[in-house]
Amino acid sequence: MRILITAGPTREPLDAVRVLSNRSSGRMGISVALEAFRRGHEVTLLLGRGAMEPPSELERCCIWFETTADLQHQLEDAFPKADLLIMAAAVADFIPETAALGTKLSRHEGPIQLTLQPAPDLVAGVAASKRPDQRIVGFALEPAAELDTRARAKLVHKNLDAIVANPLETMDAECITATLIASDGKSTEAPANMSKFAFAAWLLDRIAPSG
To answer: Which candidate in 22, 159, 166, 193 is catalytic?
Structure first.
């Protein structure tokens, strides 16, 4: 199976030095990519700058991205060739309207007002072009009290085949407590506090079983 996996953060430039980013380590997506590779799948890993370094086994199948626009272009190129997309990257919801790319903003210039605009919804965008033989699995990182409701809404709104619902505490952590929700509404809870590598195996058993 040809599996396309995204992982890690996007980084949006504010000036020539500073960026707007998030705390994603990429550990979850890298774990899924490594497990899929070891199972014999054809893996492409799109990995955000600032994430942890992937293991040497994944070096030849890893493509780095920086911004949301970079990832969007990579998805447009790679998704048509994939059977399964696992969208584990922590993509920006908002991006700076302008960036001072040719300079470094100085503190002596006084208060700086930063205007943000909504970022494109990448997973919804690729889902709109999905063929019948392709599947997309997304991730929903939300507050625990609203996790199930928001994850199910994303599943429908983004036209996904399944979504992994995980609470905010998962960010940059070594373990995960998560629920897999399918497009028919059925949910399967993973054992609590699994290592992300163990969860990767659990997840692939359900979305990309061998044989």
So the answer is: 22
